Amino acid sequence: MSSTLVDRLRAGLPDGAVVTDPAITASYANDMASFCPAEPPAVVVLPRTAEEVQHVMRTATELRVPVVPQGARSGLSGAANTSADCIALSLVKMDRILEVNPVDRIAVVEPGVINADLSKAVLAEGLFYPPDPSSWEMCTIGGNIGTASGGLCCVKYGVTAEYVLGLEVVLADGRLMSTGRRTAKGVAGYDLTRLFVGSEGSLGIVVKAVLALRPAPPPQLVLAAEFDSVRAAGAAVCEIMSGGHVPSMLELMDRTTVRAVNSFAQMGLPESTEALLIAAFDTADPAADLAAVGALCEAGGASQVVPAEDQAESELLLQARRLSLTALEQVKGTTMIDDVCVPRSRLGDLMEGVEAIAGKHALTIGVVAHAGDGNTHPTVCFDAADPEESRRARESFDEIMALGLELGGTITGEHGVGVLKKEWLARELGPVGLEMQRAVKQAFDPLNLLNPGKLF
Amino acid sequence: MSSTLVDRLRAGLPDGAVVTDPAITASYANDMASFCPAEPPAVVVLPRTAEEVQHVMRTATELRVPVVPQGARSGLSGAANTSADCIALSLVKMDRILEVNPVDRIAVVEPGVINADLSKAVLAEGLFYPPDPSSWEMCTIGGNIGTASGGLCCVKYGVTAEYVLGLEVVLADGRLMSTGRRTAKGVAGYDLTRLFVGSEGSLGIVVKAVLALRPAPPPQLVLAAEFDSVRAAGAAVCEIMSGGHVPSMLELMDRTTVRAVNSFAQMGLPESTEALLIAAFDTADPAADLAAVGALCEAGGASQVVPAEDQAESELLLQARRLSLTALEQVKGTTMIDDVCVPRSRLGDLMEGVEAIAGKHALTIGVVAHAGDGNTHPTVCFDAADPEESRRARESFDEIMALGLELGGTITGEHGVGVLKKEWLARELGPVGLEMQRAVKQAFDPLNLLNPGKLF
Ligand SMILES: Cc1cc2nc3c(=O)[nH]c(=O)nc-3n(C[C@H](O)[C@H](O)[C@H](O)COP(=O)(O)OP(=O)(O)OC[C@H]3O[C@@H](n4cnc5c(N)ncnc54)[C@H](O)[C@@H]3O)c2cc1C
Ligand SMILES: Cc1cc2nc3c(=O)[nH]c(=O)nc-3n(C[C@H](O)[C@H](O)[C@H](O)COP(=O)(O)OP(=O)(O)OC[C@H]3O[C@@H](n4cnc5c(N)ncnc54)[C@H](O)[C@@H]3O)c2cc1C
User: Fold this and answer.
1) In what residue span(s) does the FAD-binding PCMH-type domain sit (chains A, B) (predicted)?
2) Are residues B206 and B147 in the same domain?
3) Are residues B311 and B232 in the same domain?
């Protein structure tokens, strides 16, 4: 059957677009999540047009072969992992920016465009594509849509979902569907566009996207504030956000993270702090806004408040923040990165709870957080070669999600469910919610060929 | 059967919640759209709790009776119109604001809360619920969610969809489903919350909503600019929006609308202008922003640019804009209000096209537009007692939608499809899109009991 499959795929795809060399296919087996099962796919396809994607899906439907859509495989939940019987459908060659329109404030792109490439292209026109996952230099727009990615600027500008106006999607059976629009507003029928955002490749293959842009804001100015406890830092976040401020960034790094970044990249961050809060404004007068927020931090017990001197210092602090997850990986060789989001009023509770869980399991857990949104990434550091420690890592990971739900939060703020959090999704949604989610999946993919085994 | 129905409904609802008096039920037959079929419902129910709504839906499912959810019935597409065999399920008695939380920046409300009441309640806490349809003093949050309502401030703050974080929904069979979250971010499973926004009561009954709030912005300052042609005004809108400006409002009234408002409310607007552009900023320095925009208008040929002197004058201009649709209704007794949204670069084309359509059919069509978003309301004025004129009104209404689609737009920017635009929805979506929309409907409402005959 595999040779039938390959022959049939080749019949509608150009030379080189169908890869079966095991040395290459093996490298398409997984994204960046630990602990998620993955096998090399039967075949990798690298289409360059929507028609070629349609051919792949028609073939898959005829032969009943599962398909796993893939972008840059920078995901953190195993959502792009493959099984031995599947087609890995990589969209990275569909990487053209088709249009940037400053009057309509939209960009039209293929799914394989790298986030940073789009950001740069629109900036050249004085425009801004906000969603900025820390993986922005490698991840694709298709993957960002698949996972509804967030980033540092979400606290002011929202997540990917807010910027997807319209999509072209190849359905499981190979038909092409247009959803949404090129206009700023529109309510013609159900919002299937938003339904696709965050669907982790399980409803269809995105082959084109119309994205909303904003005017480029002034450059942001950054401030760092050191706190003696994570609770105090969490309380300061609440003061800032309920005080009417609209920072363009409000991030938190705990001591473990600060130290990891220092030893990974010699950043010279203050090692004695328990929690480093990083705030930024891109307003007309960012210095004034930072002064107000700095005063709130001092009133909230910050031991040090250091505004960046200039753009370069601001960029350095941002860079330190962006390196956090990678730096934490060096601590013990492997990490499990959690993604619990709580109402921001419960941020302190969550952070303290994670400390307690780390203590109980004798593990290092660094927490880096999009604090302004209550979205935390407790990152469990462990030695994957040590089965006992690995077990404790997984247990603590789960306990953190349980704590998040208890505090009125969600198991995933931006990284998605994938295979990593399937059981937890069911818990969060409850039986009725889960059943309706499955009904939607069934409506789009009755043969369960699109990324099976993910989400549910 | 009707007496069985009424008895069964009464068995689970308090006294007074089930209304069969024909004099009263007749008043629940329709919303504010012209030309849409409507019959008094078999019975009106006015539940006060989610449990009571569940009882209604369980009864409806058992007896296979259609249900039409209703808010204030201020809709403009017949989406809340009833048929003789149905239950009108009015949510207006579920009107409690359950929570306003300044730290988490959320409000939790029942569906019957009036938009203006919520706005005032959150403003008292220094917060802002942006979606502001011009009907805000009567329409309900449930209806706003049902239609994904927009308003004047969308150009800066987006539509209702952007502010709905979580929902509790009673499904067709009476089960209660929670979707979404209380947190700022979250990607756990498909975004069914957004799927419900704009679904016009056809997927379930919203009984509770978690809404996102923002800090209250500074008061806005308004400017009016007069243009000699709608094309010049449209071009100025493009200059403003591609010039990096972020107005809190950018509205356009054509001459017909200006005159209608003057004769309705003696507003003293400039009658000689072909197009009146109204821009507002709620920034830190609105006067500076208005000066920049005023200069762009002058460069674009504006004959007059008049910044409001103060808050009171600003409020007057806003009030004039908000009265537009009501004022146009006085011109000939009846209106059909269109809602075409085009890419803003095509605004001039749309406005000129509408003028041509009005000329061809010898009709008065006033255009008022959320110009910054390209969302226009060409409003056909006619005498409903004149069958010939009514026929021409309907024809021109349809030609306007055809023109909108031709210009790359959508048939509805914010008022929805209802019964008024069903055939047009099919045109806009195309066969594949329509089929998938129906599949989603089927997944949620297999017996087709929820607002049947709307949308499709
Ligand atoms: C160092 C690091 C930092 C990160 N920081 C962030 C962060 O700040 N915020 C954040 O949200 N995430 C972050 N991530 C996670 C990850 O980068 C994002 O989820 C990203 O959006 C994935 O994009 P990708 O192109 O790598 O997609 P992949 O990982 O390849 O795929 C992700 C999902 O999308 C689906 N998919 C991909 N392309 C398509 C398509 N065309 N059509 C349909 N489905 C498709 C896949 O099937 C899969 O389910 C980080 C990851 C790393 C490694
Ligand atoms: C003068 C005037 C000005 C207007 N200006 C604007 C404007 O600027 N922008 C704009 O977008 N609209 C505008 N509208 C249209 C209308 O006011 C809005 O669509 C409004 O959101 C409708 O709210 P409602 O409570 O009246 O809902 P209804 O008209 O009663 O219902 C609207 C839809 O929502 C459904 N629905 C209602 N409640 C629920 C519920 N709890 N659960 C599920 N479904 C439900 C109904 O079935 C129906 O499909 C205007 C109307 C008028 C008369």
Assistant:
1) 37-216
2) yes
3) yes
Note down the domain range covering B203.
97-215
Whether A1 shows a pLDDT value over 70: the answer reads no
Tell me the torsion sign for CA atoms B53, B59, B62, B68. Answer: negative
Tell me, what's the pLDDT at A30? 96
CB < 8 Å to B167, chain A: none
Domain-ending residue, one of A49, A73, A90? A90
B78 CA distance to ligand 1 middle (Å): 42
From start to end of A181-308, where are the E strands?
A: 205-212, 214-215, 221-227, 249-254, 275-281, 304-307
Question: What is the pLDDT at residue A23?
Answer: 95
User: Sorting pLDDT into bands at 50, 70 and 90, what band is B178?
Assistant: very high
A134 touches ligand 1 (CB under 6 Å): yes
Are the Cβ atoms of B179 and A375 closer than 8 angstroms?
no
Do A210 and A225 share a domain, yes or no?
Answer: no
Q: Is there an atom of ligand 1 within 6 Å of A32 CB?
A: yes
Q: How many domains does chain B have?
A: 3
Q: Tell me, yes or no, whether A158 and A199 share the same domain.
A: yes
Chain B interface test: which of A157, A183, A239, A432 (most B C-beta within 10 Å): A183
Question: Which two three-digit tokens encode residue B408?
Answer: 């790359």
One-letter amino acid of A261 = V
Q: Classify residue A296: in a domain, yes or no.
A: yes
Q: What is the CATH number of the domain that holds A70?
A: 3.30.43.10
Query: Within this chain, do residues A173 and A278 fall inside the same structural domain, yes or no?
Result: no
Residues B5-25, mean pLDDT to the nearest whole number: 97
A100 Cβ contact partners less than 8 Å away, ≥ 6 residues apart: A106, A107, A121, A122, A125, A127, A213
Q: Would B433 be classed as within a structural domain?
A: no
User: Is A229 found in the same domain as A190?
Assistant: no
Please check whether residues A390 and A270 belong to one and the same domain.
yes
A438 inside domain:
no
Write the residue with the smallest CA distance to atom 8 of ligand 2.
B133
Specify whether the CB–CB gap between B372 and A105 falls below 8 A: no
Task: Single out the residue of B407, B402, B424 nearest to residue B415, CA to CA.
Answer: B424
How far does the CA of residue A336 sit from the closest CA of chain B (Å)? Answer: 18
Q: Compute CA distances B14 → A190, B17, B42, B46, B392, whole Å.
A: 34, 6, 18, 9, 48
Contact B199, A190 (CB under 8 A): yes
Contact A67, A87 (CB under 8 A): yes
Residue A35's pLDDT is 77
From the CA of B428, how far away is ligand 1's center (Å)? 31
Of A90, A111, A146, the last residue of a domain is A90
- The per-residue DSSP string of B368-384 comes to EEEGGGTEEEEEEEE-T
- B115 and B175, same domain (yes or no): yes
Is residue A93 within 8 A of residue A129, CB to CB? The reply is no
Residues in contact with ligand 2 (CB, 6 Å cut-off): B 31-32, 68-76, 79-80, 91, 111, 133-135, 139-140, 142-144, 146-147, 149-151, 200-201, 205-206, 325-326, 414-415, 451
- Is the pLDDT at A243 greater than 70? The verdict is yes
Q: What is the DSSP letter of A450?
A: B
User: pLDDT at residue A2 above 80?
Assistant: no
- The CATH number given to whatever domain includes residue A231 is 3.40.462.10
- pLDDT for A233 beyond 80: yes
